[in-house]
Amino acid sequence: MRLSVSEAAKRAGVSVRTLRWYDEIGLLKPSETTQAGYRFYDGAAMASLQQILFYRELGVPLEQIGRILSAPGNDRTEALRKHRTLLLMKRQRLDDMLRLVDETIGGIAMYDERPKPTQADWEAVKKQYAQEAADRWGNTEAFLESREKHAGYTPEQEAQINAEMEEIFQAFGACGDPEGQEGQALARRWQAHITRYHYNCTDGILACLGQMYENDPRFQENLDKYGPGTARKMSAAIARLVRK
């Protein structure tokens, strides 16, 4: 399998912009990128994408999904099986709705006495899987709050949140003095962004994030795309802010 970015997006039911964003933040890298910049995805990459979509369905934030995918205990096959279960239940509900419309248009009542999954059934299974993810990968107040918030966001809202985040990262990349007024203002803005859209970002949580940005190679690589030393600048600005 060798799919272009547009083919991969179409097959997965997401936008090309989403795949490019996942690439930028290091969540899902293409299996191949040509010298001309064209992205291609193989079977392994598409399987990882399915995992991402499964956890997004459960409302797990992207940052947490990244940690899940890279964790030694991550069972990709099990996640895909659960995603398949949710999709089958969703398809059954849609089939039932289409059948009802057809019957109404045709004026013919057709009854199928076989048990069918209801909206409540689907929500119950989704809730069960979400709780399993929380129990295994981060059953914390911040995790649960973030999951609840993201479950209510529309794709347009998610895109706006991502755009605001990128704007902050770009400002950090261009910041000349992370421990000065400019850097401190950006650190406070970043903390407010996390609290508003994800979870209550206390000074303690922010301090841990700041250390992770500089010490975790994956985060450092992604942040430094916004300018050399962006991860270090964010870490320094945050460290200075929480020391006040």
Helix percentage = over 70%
For CATH, the homologous superfamily of the largest domain is named as: Antibiotic binding domain of TipA-like multidrug resistance regulators
**Structural domain count:** 3
CATH class term of the largest domain: Mainly Alpha
Strand order of the largest sheet: 1-3-2
Largest sheet: 3 strands, antiparallel
**Mean residue pLDDT:** 78
CATH architecture of the largest domain: Orthogonal Bundle
Structure description:
The chain is an all-alpha fold and 244 residues long. The chain has three domains: 3-70, Orthogonal Bundle (Multidrug-efflux Transporter Regulator, Chain: A, Domain 2), CATH 1.10.1660; 76-137; 153-243, Antibiotic binding domain of TipA-like multidrug resistance regulators (Globin-like). Helix content is 71%, strand content 3%. Helix 1 (5-12) crosses helix 2 (16-24) and helix 5 packs antiparallel against helix 6 (119-137).
Can you tag this structure with a few keywords?
single chain, 244 residues, mainly alpha, Multidrug-efflux Transporter Regulator, Chain: A, Domain 2, Globin-like, three-stranded antiparallel sheet, 71% helix
Structure described in brief:
With 244 residues, the protein is mainly α. The protein has helices at 5-12, 16-24, 43-57, 62-70, 76-106, 119-137, 141-151, 155-174, 181-197, 203-215, 217-223, 230-243; strands spanning 3-4, 32-33, 39-41. The model has no long low-confidence stretch (mean pLDDT 78).
Helices and strands in order:
Elements lengths: L2 E2 H8 L3 H9 L7 E2 L5 E3 L1 H15 L4 H9 L5 H31 L12 H19 L3 H11 L3 H20 L6 H17 L5 H13 L1 H7 L6 H14 L1
Antiparallel strand pairs: 1-3, 2-3
Helix pairs in contact: 1-2, 3-4, 3-5, 5-6, 8-9, 8-12, 9-12, 10-11, 10-12
